[in-house]
């Protein structure tokens, strides 16, 4: 009988590597896509779509739509936004390392030629890396969730640069200015996008991959 953990069985290798690959795809898609959140600011009818690396805004002027996407808006975002970017990137990197190392370990397994041949491999290190990735990914998406709950958004005041804040009052205070017409200040309407959902799916998949690799490294 071949000695070693459950990972010595082909089905466990397939499950482990497939889950890690799916996890990597989910996390990369979440990190690089441009729909973490969709905001609508009703004061001047602005739609803002947040990606971690690019933010797009659409301003309606009657029947005319002014569309523009800018990386600078994301690069100059406040600390909480940079924290999300950093932890999501770190999560992708750790998962990539774990996946590559797991592939290397399994690829280097000797060909089993007889029943009594001894061979073993442990995915304990990839499991630990996936646990670390689950934690960093959770920090990333949770930070975004908390900031959204606190109404942190990007505002576009007239004749002034785009400004981050949690209300028009904060924006005017930051810019030491007030609108000439003093209109009603409406709250920002915020809706989570598909990138945010992919981020949470990536965290759940990372956690599942950690459990699978840990179990597969155990004894039969």
From TrEMBL:
Its main location: membrane. The keyword DNA damage does not apply. It is found in: Membrane. It is a multi-pass membrane protein. GO terms for cellular component: plasma membrane. The chain crosses the membrane at residues 12-32, 86-107, 119-147, 194-216. InterPro entries: PMP-22/EMP/MP20-like, PMP22/EMP/MP20/Claudin. Keywords: Membrane, Transmembrane, Transmembrane helix. The keyword Membrane applies. PANTHER family: CLAUDIN FAMILY PROTEIN-RELATED, EPITHELIAL MEMBRANE PROTEIN-RELATED. This is Uncharacterized protein. It comes from Clytia hemisphaerica.
């Amino acid at each position: 009988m071949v000695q070693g953990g459950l990972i010595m069985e082909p089905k466990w290798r397939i499950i482990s590597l497939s889950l890690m690959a799916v996890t990597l795809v989910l996390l990369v898609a979440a990190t690089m896509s441009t729909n973490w959140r969709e905001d609508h600011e009703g004061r001047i009818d602005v739609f803002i779509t947040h990606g971690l690396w690019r933010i797009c805004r659409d301003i309606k002027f009657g029947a005319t739509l002014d569309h523009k996407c800018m990386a600078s808006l994301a690069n100059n975002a406040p600390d909480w936004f940079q924290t999300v970017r950093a932890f999501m990137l770190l999560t992708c990197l750790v998962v990539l390392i774990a996946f590559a190392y797991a592939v290397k370990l399994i690829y280097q397994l000797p060909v089993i030629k007889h029943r009594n041949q001894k061979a073993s491999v442990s995915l304990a290190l990839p499991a630990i890396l996936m646990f670390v990735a689950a934690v960093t990914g959770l920090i990333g998406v949770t930070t975004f969730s908390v900031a959204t709950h606190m109404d942190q958004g990007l505002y576009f005041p007239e004749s002034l640069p785009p400004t981050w804040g949690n209300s028009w009052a904060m924006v005017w205070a930051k810019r030491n200015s007030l609108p000439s017409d003093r209109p009603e200040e409406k709250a920002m309407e915020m809706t989570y996008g598909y990138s945010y959902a992919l981020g949470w799916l990536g965290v759940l998949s990372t956690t599942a991959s950690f459990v699978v690799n840990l179990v597969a490294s155990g004894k039969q």
